[in-house]
Amino acid sequence: MQLLNADDYRAAARRHLPKGLFEYIDRGTEAELAIADIRRSLDNIRFRPSVLTGHAGSNMTTSLFDRTYCSPLIIAPTALAGLVSHDGETKLARVASKLGIPFCVSTQSVTSIDDIRKGAPEAELWLQLYVWRNRDLTWGLLDRAQKAGVSTLVITADTPLSPKRDYNQRNGFSVPFVPSLRGVWDVATRPKWLCSVMLRYLMTSGMPTYAHYLAEFKTAITRAAIAEDVKIESAISWADIAEIQKRWSGRIIIKGVLSVDDAIRARDMGIDGIVVSSHGGRNLDVALAPADVLPEIVDAVGAEMLVMADSGIRRGSDALKYLALGCRAVMVGRLPLYGLAAGGEQGALDILTMLIDEMHSNLVFAGAKDIDALRTAGIA
After folding, report:
1. Three-state DSSP class for 255?
2. pTM to 2 decimals?
3. Would the annotation count 339 as a binding residue?
4. 104: part of which helix (H) or strand (E)?
5. Is 112 labeled as ligand-binding?
6. Which family is it part of (predicted)?
7. Is 95 inside any structural domain?
């Protein structure tokens, strides 16, 4: 089947992945209202096109910090990309390198930041950080990231605890994987995934789990003793951000900002950037949609710090809508995972190339030679 759009890739991912894993990456939380709100907020935006502009092409060159990129995309941090495809995080890093964009590695990746660097030596790696209750382990991860040449730290601030996702319980999905009749049947009904992903891990590195956790976490006999150490810190505060600033020599971005006050606080602390994000509708089910608050946040701090956005991007026009609202770059999370599931590294490259092509064509149809022109024209 020819894959022509995001829905095609999503359907291919659903066919390939075990149900528990697919729903983990695809769905939201509680009643999944936030996912619908994100979609509504983007669908309600319309461009006001200019005609007869003489622009046969478009330029999406973007400057972020001290570098220039050919497009304003960043591959977002997503947990367990290495379960979607064997060594999936490294594949995404190589895809990012081919496209000339950054790849943000998740704290909850199946492959460690060190090994991703070895597998993708030319990639620009960022690291997404969940602050663990054991701060010494957190600081150790920062040290490993700096040794791996990570340029930018993205601190996820909107996840003080694990959200309520009923479908994970129904599907018997957990990490580390705990065998159950439902879970084993789910995996057995996806033999291609079982052979190409799970069995490859079992024959080499063992049962896949979060690579940045302590080695003891992979062993059932010691897991309970250290489980508290690697829980996400529910009481993370601005004081933790200040401590990270002392320990991290690179750039710092705070992800999960949805209020002007928080954006101003981050700016006043000297934070380099923020991501206006509702975590793709996966955390607080009654959170504001990023598109609804992005303009006021850009107005408040956009001249003094880098403002990015994410959540719900399915088409090139979705990415352009966030950019037209004033952000400088967008993070894309689920789409690369659909691509990985559908076709491995090439599939991830194809779906992101498709997204970039859609962005270019929408700019041309809007009569905008570049993203700045699109912002100037405004939205209807």
Report:
1. strand
2. 0.95
3. no
4. strand 103-105
5. no
6. Belongs to the FMN-dependent alpha-hydroxy acid dehydrogenase family.
7. yes
